[in-house]
Amino acid sequence: MSIRRSSGLVGALALALVLTGCGSSSDGGSDSASEKSETRVFTADNGKITIPANPKRVVATGYAVPALIEADAPLVGISSWKRGEPMMTKDDLATYKKLKKIAGEQAAETNYEAIAEAEPDLIVIGVPAPVLGDIDMKRLKSIAPVVAIGPSLPSAWRDLSRKQADAAGAVKQFDAQKETYDTKAAELTDKYKDVLPKLKLGHVGAYGDAAKGTFQREFNGSWGTNIAEDLGATYYGKVKKSGPGSAAVSEYPSIEELPAAFRDADALTYSVNADGSVPPSVKYVLDSKLWKNLPAVKAGKVFPYRYTEAATYGEGLLTLDAIDESLAPLLKP
Amino acid sequence: MSVAGRASETAGRNRRAVPRTALLVGGLVLLAALAVLSMGVGARHVATGEVVRALFDYRGTDDHVVVRDVRAPRALLAVAVGAALAVAGALIQTLARNPLAEPGILGVTAGAGFAVTLGSAAGLAGGQAGELGFAVIGAAAAALLVAAVGRSSPLRLVLTGVAVTAVLNGVALGLRLMLPDTFDLYRFWSVGTLAGREQAPLPWPLTAIAVSLAGALLLSRALNALTLGENVAHTLGASVGRVRLTTLVLITVLSGAATAVAGPILFIGLIVPHLVRKPASGSVPWLIAYSMVLGPVLLLAADMAARVLLPTGEVPVAIVTAFLGGPMLIWAVRRYGAGSL
């Protein structure tokens, strides 16, 4: 056997191993050596979909937008994702602005013609399952294979963003980003190990509705709390009545229930905007006399968190820094 | 008329005046009782004794804060908004001589909604103070426009109000469909509620409502003359133009301020005048006085129901009034008829 033939065999074996290692099976339908025609079966919210093994032109929407920009996926079109702009790095923001917008902020604002013009070989939809009803999936499928990988539980962004990167063939950069995050989280866990795990924490989220006289209480696993948990924080309690998605980890009680909700908390945290300003729904709580009566507030153990909407490891790094900055007074004797 | 005839009319008036006054006093007692009761109902259980202590011996405990700083302002708001909407409804029905007229028919609610939408789109209506400001400006501007175009006759006034309402609602809807963030903010405002208003800047709108209610009572005798027809009103010495303009101003301020502080609450302005028309016996002063009491009674009762109806938490009071309003209106019209307008 010639050296040339041996190296070809090794290459084929390596490719087979990589495809198997992805957790999805190759369809085996392509014997062509052409990389372009290689496919695999990918399990997504919308079923088992045959997608290119190595996509070259990817369209992303919703939560897949920041995840795939960070993972350096070969994007040719994205939906608008204004909520993520304050958390993007300078380079990622430049990429985001440069990429063609094929949909607005809402799934219903999808521009099918613009997607077709982008000639994608894969479409990654990052919206919650109920929102898929706003999208003409049949029309999208006529353009390219569509994988829907949307958010479920808030803390599930870790797995979901990896899955999105995997579908787009961009796991390498994704894993590098994850490693940076894990290292930073481990560092901060060590820094706060003597104080944070001992505290019973409560969190006020930004999605309460002052107009209805309610506030958002977030428990473990919610948007405002899940990254702090990576540092050893625990948000005690659980929702009175669990629901799908974020309703399993957060609830909206009346402001009258504020004392009962946080009476036992050693410290309280609350979500603020990226620029540090307090959203109206949180301000309503902070201005309430019931809040000022809480033991943790009287003890001065109140800490704002920025970047609580983080849904990628890159965004999570910002959240880690913000939490570290906010909780620093806990380390003072 | 003979002396005997005059004596008989006077005696009749006296016989009727006692029950009407008694009814009003009874209504006021019921209102006071409901207001106190409403301070004992809510997501947090507060014992009756603590409610009383919170009002008369405030110690700053969580129970006292809930009663004094959350529920008492809410009860006060229910009284003011209920009275404002009901009296505005009585005034517009009397002025337009139309039993289906309600405060929103002059475009006030649509004007407030349009302004809140516009303010949200411009990023200026964030927070309750911002919403309140835009709602007041929008309500006043819409009412001015309607009054300017339709002031010559009640029918023209109502038609102008309906047209302006349709245009403003259409444009506002278009804006909200184009701007999802604006839609998000507006949907919280668009269903009227009395919850969560305790931190809003309420003194100004509440003062405007109080002054306008007093104005409505003062104007009621002149309006009484107007119900007999313009010519008769002229003969009786009433200045028709001035009375009509003042009534329009009062309706605008009452419904505009009520909508600004609580959002759109339908049916109170429509059904309360129907419910009290029979006991008022065609007297506009009594119609307004009764409306001023029954409006708050209904809104307080609806607001208490809104707090306890669902085990999952409270619903906006506008939903309760919408559910109750339809059947109550049908009942009132079948029971009493539309009454004289």
Descriptive account of the structure:
The complex is a heterodimer of chains A (333) and B (341). Chain A has 333 residues and is of the alpha/beta class. Chain A is built from 13 helices and 12 strands. Chain B has a single domain, classed as ABC transporter involved in vitamin B12 uptake, BtuC (Orthogonal Bundle), CATH 1.10.3470.10. In chain B, helix 3 (62-96) crosses helix 11. Chain B is globular. Chains A and B meet through helix 10 of A and helix 3 and helix 7 of B.
The gist of it:
The complex is a heterodimer of chains A (333) and B (341). Chain A is an alpha/beta fold and 333 residues long.
Low-confidence stretches of chain B: 1-12
User: CATH topology of the largest domain in chain A, anyone?
Assistant: Rossmann fold
Spell out the CATH superfamily of chain B: ABC transporter involved in vitamin B12 uptake, BtuC
Strand content of chain B: under 5%
Shape of chain B: globular
The topology string of helices and strands of chain B comes to HHHHHHHHHHHHH
- The total tally of domains of chain B equals 1
**How many individual helices of chain B?**
13
Provide the CATH topology of chain B. Answer: ABC transporter involved in vitamin B12 uptake, BtuC
Q: Which stretches of chain A are poorly predicted, pLDDT < 50 over at least 5 residues? A: 1-33
**Architecture of chain B, CATH level 2?**
Orthogonal Bundle
Task: Summarize the helices and strands and which ones pair or pack.
The complex is a heterodimer of chains A (333) and B (341).
Chain A: H1 3-21, E1 39-44, E2 47-52, E3 58-62, H2 64-70, E4 75-79, H3 90-98, E5 101-103, H4 112-117, E6 122-126, H5 137-141, E7 146-148, H6 157-167, H7 171-191, E8 201-205, E9 216-218, H8 226-229, E10 250-251, H9 258-262, E11 267-271, H10 280-286, H11 289-292, H12 295-298, E12 302-305, H13 313-327
Parallel strand pairs in A: 3-4, 3-6, 4-5, 6-7, 8-11, 11-12
Antiparallel strand pairs in A: 1-2, 8-9, 9-10
Helix pairs in contact in A: 7-13
Chain B: H1 3-38, H2 48-56, H3 62-96, H4 108-121, H5 127-150, H6 154-178, H7 180-190, H8 203-226, H9 230-235, H10 240-262, H11 268-280, H12 284-308, H13 317-336
